[in-house]
């Protein structure tokens, strides 16, 4: 397979590279802030995950058949646009997504499901702000490496409570699957707290913070990926993860989910009270 691979081929929003055996990098570059749009998810990000998995599985099958103890390693790093240092991703195009009743079931939830069940370790290289839907994307990965904010601000934040947007059902399950401290969960969900990199590290939202810019974060993320890539060799990484995060995995597989709005909640309250 020849790299780099771009998705889609015309006006690419994602580029996949394969810097060394057992390591892939997915770069998101849907503009500078890598919004998680319908087109980005359906035409770029999901096909990129497919390409990585296809290549890894070919290698893994060959290693299994030849009993190659050194074969079948694998890990993938996901990074924001490498030509800038401000955003990992600015999250959704909320107005558009909220008007499409099929956005969650056809685009966003399948993306989260894919990450939660991916067969090799996933590392999010947070090279800038990581907001809302992008924070859930990053939490759906196994490891997170974040810029330390010493050169410019970088925050992790779920700010829906501040502009009146209810969380889609799987959001809470992903947060509970990955964040065990109740006070941290409260700050994320009910306060819309903007976590600095140092706060995110202290709370366990990220595993490492790195001084510098995008390439420094990416280099550290690749080191983390390589250090755990051997865990893919037995072929059960995704199977175990699917059971470990079973509630979130099940929720992101639902096709009948419809979100609740503040207006709907108020209407139902009036009927009840």
UniProtKB/TrEMBL annotation:
Top-level division of the source organism's lineage: Eukaryota
Gene3D superfamilies, A to Z: 2-enoyl-CoA Hydratase, Chain A, domain 1
Matches recorded under InterPro entries: ClpP/crotonase-like_dom_sf (IPR029045), Enoyl-CoA_hyd/isom_CS (IPR018376), Enoyl-CoA_hydra/iso (IPR001753)
One Pfam entry name: ECH_1
Gene Ontology terms for molecular function: delta(3)-delta(2)-enoyl-CoA isomerase activity
GO cellular component: peroxisome
UniProt GO BP: fatty acid beta-oxidation
Family: Belongs to the enoyl-CoA hydratase/isomerase family.
Protein name: ClpP/crotonase
UniProt source species: Phlebiopsis gigantea (strain 11061_1 CR5-6)
């Amino acid at each position: 397979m020849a790299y780099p691979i771009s998705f889609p081929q015309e006006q690419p929003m994602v580029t996949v590279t394969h810097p060394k055996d057992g390591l892939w990098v997915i770069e998101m570059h849907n503009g500078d802030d890598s919004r998680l749009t319908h087109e980005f998810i359906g035409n770029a990000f999901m096909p990129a995950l497919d390409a990585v998995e296809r290549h890894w599985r070919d290698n893994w099958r060959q290693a299994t058949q030849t009993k190659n103890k050194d074969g079948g390693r694998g890990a993938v790093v996901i990074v924001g646009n490498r030509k800038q240092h401000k955003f990992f991703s600015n999250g959704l195009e909320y107005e558009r997504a909220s008007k499409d009743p099929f956005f969650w079931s056809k685009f966003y939830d399948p993306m989260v499901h894919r990450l939660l069940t991916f067969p090799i370790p996933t590392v999010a290289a947070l090279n800038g702000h990581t907001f809302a839907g992008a924070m859930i994307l990053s939490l759906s990965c196994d490891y997170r490496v974040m810029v330390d904010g010493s050169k410019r601000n970088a925050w992790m934040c779920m700010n829906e409570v501040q502009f009146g947007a209810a969380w889609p059902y799987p959001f809470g399950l992903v947060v509970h699957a990955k964040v065990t401290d109740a006070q941290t969960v409260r700050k994320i969900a009910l306060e819309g707290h903007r976590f600095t990199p140092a706060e995110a590290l202290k709370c366990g939202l990220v595993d490492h913070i790195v001084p510098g810019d995008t390439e420094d974060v990416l280099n550290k993320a690749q080191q983390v990926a390589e250090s755990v890539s051997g865990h893919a060799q037995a072929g059960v990484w995704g199977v175990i993860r699917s059971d470990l995060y079973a509630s979130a995995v099940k929720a992101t597989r639902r096709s009948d989910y419809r979100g609740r709005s503040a207006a709907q909640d108020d209407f139902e309250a009036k009927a009840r009270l």
